[in-house]
Amino acid sequence: MRHIISILIENESGALSRVAGLFSARGYNIESLTVAPTEDPSLSRMTLVTSGSDEIIEQITKQLNKLIDVVKLIDLAESAHIERELMLVKIKTTHETREEVKRMVDIFRGKIIDVTPNSYVVEMTGQSNKLDAFIHGFEEGSIIEVARSGPTGISRGEKGLHL
Amino acid sequence: MELSGGQILVQCLKDEGVEFVFGYPGGSVLHIYDAIFHQDDVKHILVRHEQGATHSADAYARATGKPGVVLVTSGPGATNAVTGIATAYMDSIPMVIISGQVPSPVIGSDAFQEVDTVGITRPCVKHNFLVKDVNQLAETIKKAFYVATTGRPGPVLVDVPKDITDPNIKIPYKYPKKVSMRSYNPVVTGHKGQIKRAVEMLLCAQRPMIYSGGGVILGEAHEELTELTRMLGYPITNTLMGLGGYPATDKQFVGMLGMHGTYEANMGMHEADVILAVGARFDDRVTGKLAEFCPYAKIVHIDVDPASISKTVKVDVPIVGEVKPVLQQMIELIKDSKTKPSKAALESWWQLIQSWRDVNCLEYDRESRIIKPQYVVEQLYEVTNGNAFVTSDVGQHQMYAAQYYKFDKPRRWINSGGLGTMGFGLPAAIGVKLAFPEADVACITGEASIQMCIQELSTALQYNTPVKIVNLNNRYMGMVRQWQEFSYQSRYSHSYMDTIPDFVKLAEAYGHVGIRVEKPEEVRDALKQAFEMKDRTVFLDFITDRTENVYPMIEAGKAHHDMKLRVAPGTPVERELS
Ligand SMILES: Cc1cc2nc3c(=O)[nH]c(=O)nc-3n(C[C@H](O)[C@H](O)[C@H](O)COP(=O)(O)OP(=O)(O)OC[C@H]3O[C@@H](n4cnc5c(N)ncnc54)[C@H](O)[C@@H]3O)c2cc1C
Ligand SMILES: Cc1ncc(C[n+]2csc(CCOP(=O)(O)OP(=O)(O)O)c2C)c(N)n1
Ligand SMILES: [Mg+2]
């Protein structure tokens, strides 16, 4: 099953490689990893998407917790949560296709944030499968590049992951 | 008090109560060595190879319970230390390694003797630090000792760039009395409800087995374990790392379990209905084939590291906590409990165990005209009255030591279990002898292993650490040869060397005594003679049977009840299961 693990980790130079190293050393699957400082600059929040059997996920969370730099973590998949990913995508346009592309962007509630005679840059957030669907809506060759952040997430309700 | 970084480092070690630093100098640690020069509270032991430093410090920690300390230079100094750091990591040994690093401004420029020590050691340390500011040096050292010695112990490395120890930059020094880290809070006491469940399960057992490991030694819980086991009257087995956690000469002890464990221990595990696992981690050498491991048992597992629990074997009652307080709580609950272990069940269980014991799985040919390695270990046991500290290398000799030297006390058996590092034995013996100068210290080794850190014979002379090297010289990498005999139709591919040094001359060249022993009747006297030479390191080269194998053996992928024995047991054991 797919799991989204959110981690509060000391904002130290080696911290990211400890997490990445753990996954490669133990052969755990890692689909995506995002990291940025939180409102407390000494702490970073990392969101990690992984998958595996219950036993493997249990070991992953235990091994992550064991890292000295990890302060706290939760497996978002265990309760109600919200998940979002940011995507920037550059799309080829011609005079004929511009309207059609704009319509697609509207349907997916994206924004066109850069325009040249031959291209648009579209900004879009949502669950990863929505972003996938948007991309699949275009013909091969019409997408110049895609930059995705990987999912990040937060639990629903007042409880949260904090110190 | 204003001190330079180099002085601070040494002062921190002093304030931490460090007795010995095992090290080797080089460019990036010269400021530190200069600070060492000006004091003699912290004694520096100059090894001959950084691997030796790590093993000596590691063994010092295993024997005393105090963290071992290592000091090495950047680049090759640090990489040479890696094997020893990994050895300590695998066996959860508290150790602090200080490595020099190139000056901060040139880090990342492929400077002379630069390696990414923090990166290289990351997977084999409990934690590591790179010191970026001399003002954080003292606190970092304190944290290193704190992390290394608490929770599940392990090695912690502190990488110190040369500019941090600059003698010209002095700052006020204060060693923190305590540190706390918001991200590190090891659990101590276990969950009360779980402990109660565990006790209930234990008291209702029909065929119980206690399986204890290195955690009992690390957690200083041998007394509690002994009390609990005696109170219950249950059989107990130890892992290789747990030997000495329960007196081996006691009648409730059924020997080591696992790949080279006794018939009675492994059969007992296989047939048990309740297993109490104490500070043991269900290593593959212990479990054999996982799918058939302890098929009838409910398992209680006490371990300070949650990640050790249900890692390979799913357990029924997990208890996260230090063994000592958890066992104390269990003892109290058992005392107060109205339920008592069933006498009748226990009696028939012990009868079954006796029938396995009668197989005499550790019997060997005592009439042999060639020295049997088992015999040497038995004689060593007698000559030292079972009181020696015994270090070992890795191979058949290690297993003979574990099987035939009966350890009644913890911290006397010092070996590399998890990593299985050849070369461990000799530097380990030196580390132990420094800690306990009056004690008998023996290093049981093989002619292949001993050559991996032989240079430490020179350290042994410099610091006058008169250890006794018991070389079980079978002219083979015996353990490798044994696997090749069993699994590769005796194709002995590169498991022997065409040239083996004359160890007697070698010992003499290093300034020690060398004795070669070729006949069984000379074994005892040679050992006695060696231990009577109180102030000399003695290299005893026992020419042993080349063809001898370690039995019992559970071959790779087999289960506990599927053991290869030296002699097939006469009548198959009757299985009476309720
Ligand atoms: C050639 C060779 C053959 C071997 N054959 C065998 C064999 O036949 N049988 C065998 O048993 N081993 C054998 N080994 C050793 C094996 O590889 C493992 O090292 C060993 O089995 C592990 O022992 P352990 O389970 O006691 O764990 P350890 O490695 O000692 O780990 C200790 C456990 O206790 C926990 N712990 C630590 N401190 C505490 C505390 N204070 N409170 C609670 N828990 C704590 C730790 O978290 C850890 O889970 C062999 C090794 C070699 C090299
Ligand atoms: C550093 C290292 N290299 C290789 C091995 C694999 N290995 C395990 S036992 C062994 C042979 C040991 O031979 P010896 O020291 O003579 O001991 P014996 O088995 O003959 O008693 C080898 C090569 C190891 N454990 N460690
Ligand atoms: Mg040999």
From TrEMBL, chain A:
Protein name per its UniProtKB record: Acetolactate synthase small subunit
Pathway named in the protein's UniProt entry: Amino-acid biosynthesis; L-valine biosynthesis; L-valine from pyruvate: step 1/4; Amino-acid biosynthesis; L-isoleucine biosynthesis; L-isoleucine from 2-oxobutanoate: step 1/4
Cross-referenced PROSITE patterns: ACT
Molecular function per GO: acetolactate synthase activity
Gene3D superfamilies in alphabetical order: 3.30.70.260, ACT-like. Chain A, domain 2 (3.30.70.1150)
Family membership: Belongs to the acetolactate synthase small subunit family.
ACT domain mapped to chain residues: 4-79
Entry EC number(s): 2.2.1.6
Cross-referenced NCBIfam families: acolac_sm, PRK11895.1
Superkingdom of this protein's organism: Bacteria
InterPro entries: Acetalactate_synth_ssu, Acetolactate_synth/TF_NikR_C, Acetolactate_synth_ssu_C, ACT-like_dom_sf, ACT_dom, AHAS_ACT, AHAS_small-like_ACT
Organism: Methylomonas aurea
Claim: Transferase is one of the keywords in the record: yes
Catalytic activity as recorded in UniProt: 2 pyruvate + H(+) = (2S)-2-acetolactate + CO2
Function, as annotated: Catalyzes the conversion of 2 pyruvate molecules into acetolactate in the first common step of the biosynthetic pathway of the branched-amino acids such as leucine, isoleucine, and valine.
Subunit record text: Dimer of large and small chains.
Swiss-Prot/TrEMBL keywords: Amino-acid biosynthesis, Branched-chain amino acid biosynthesis, Transferase
TrEMBL record, chain B:
EC number: 2.2.1.6
Keywords recorded for this protein, A-Z: Amino-acid biosynthesis, Branched-chain amino acid biosynthesis, Magnesium, Metal-binding, Thiamine pyrophosphate, Transferase
Domain Thiamine pyrophosphate enzyme TPP-binding residue range list: 393-541
Pathway(s) it belongs to: Amino-acid biosynthesis; L-valine biosynthesis; L-valine from pyruvate: step 1/4; Amino-acid biosynthesis; L-isoleucine biosynthesis; L-isoleucine from 2-oxobutanoate: step 1/4
Cofactor: how and how many bound: Binds 1 Mg(2+) ion per subunit. Binds 1 thiamine pyrophosphate per subunit.
Family classification: Belongs to the TPP enzyme family.
UniProt name for this protein: Acetolactate synthase
Organism: Methylomonas aurea
Phylogenetic lineage: Bacteria, Pseudomonadati, Pseudomonadota, Gammaproteobacteria, Methylococcales
